[in-house]
Amino acid sequence: MTDTTLWVPVALSTSIEPGTSAGTKIDGAEYVVWRDDGGKAHVWEDRCPHRGMRLSFGFVRGDQIACLYHGWRYDTGGQCRYIPAHPDLEVPQTIKVPTFAATERAGIIWTAPEGADAADLSALSETAEAIRSLYLDLSANASLLAVTAAPPEGYRPVPGVPDTVTLQGNGTTVLIAAQPRDASRTALHITVTANTSAAIRRDLILWATDLRNRLESQTTEAA
Q1: Closest of 9, 99, 85 to residue 46, by C-alpha
Q2: Is 222 helix (H, G, I), strand (E, B) or coil?
Q3: In the prediction, which pLDDT does 3 show?
Q4: Residue 58 carries which DSSP code?
Q5: What is the block-wise mean pLDDT of the chain (223 residues), using blocks of 10 residues?
Q6: Sheet holding 64-66, edge to edge
Q7: What H or E segment, with its residue span, contains residue 3?
Q8: What angle do CA 67, 85, 78 make, to 5 degrees?
Q9: What residues pair up with 25 in beta bridges, in sequence order?
Q10: CA distances (Å), 191 to each of 9, 15, 29, 102, 123, in order?
């Protein structure tokens, strides 16, 4: 986990639908983000303890996620509950996937070490609408500096939580949260105040696309 802030963004809430999973990285380490059929989001180490297969390749059934390789199933606490090759086996409690705290705020799924205080995100709105996620070949700090150097027209930066940029303008609040995938790659997850007009959302999507294109062009020229 990053040392700069307790909570790290890992995905837009809308990108992980009930019954689905996706792999991601934080500082080079691999994680699976999945949502059970009841709608609760989970963030775990992306590795089945059996043979090391990524759980993000598996499938979600109800409140369990199963490994694609041999079908070992794990409950929401990370505990293995069923091994298809040994259906009558009482699974040892030692077969467990490392799990991390997960919460949702401002339209983003966040993770942190177990025992984290969700109040650390209390400055953010409870709900928001997704704009998009940008995947950039820049460090998290450089990515956020690029946002503040060229915000959408009519918006200005305001104080916010660490490792994010908050912009206000046109009667809305835009949040850009940085996920450090590794030292030189970052995902920026962008959301806007709930119930924002379609026109404003469209303009923000165009701004985000233009920002990505400009940064990619600069990276190509530098190479």
Answers
A1: 99
A2: helix
A3: 43
A4: S
A5: 70 97 97 97 97 95 96 97 93 95 96 73 91 96 95 94 93 96 96 95 96 83 55
A6: 59-61, 64-66, 73-74, 80-82
A7: none
A8: 40
A9: 30
A10: 12, 12, 25, 18, 15
Q: How many residues does the chain have?
A: 223
CA-CA-CA-CA dihedral for 141, 144, 148, 151, to nearest 10 = 160
Closest CA to 12 of 211, 208, 222, 220: 208
Among residues 116, 78, 70, the alpha carbon closest in space to that of 97 is found at: 78
Q: What is residue 219's three-state secondary structure?
A: helix
What is the model's pLDDT at position 1? 46
Closest CA to 133 of 17, 46, 24: 24
- Among 145, 128, 186, 132, which residue's Cα sits nearest to residue 2? 186
* One-letter identity of residue 41: A
CA distance 30 to 206: 30
Tokens of 50: 């059996």
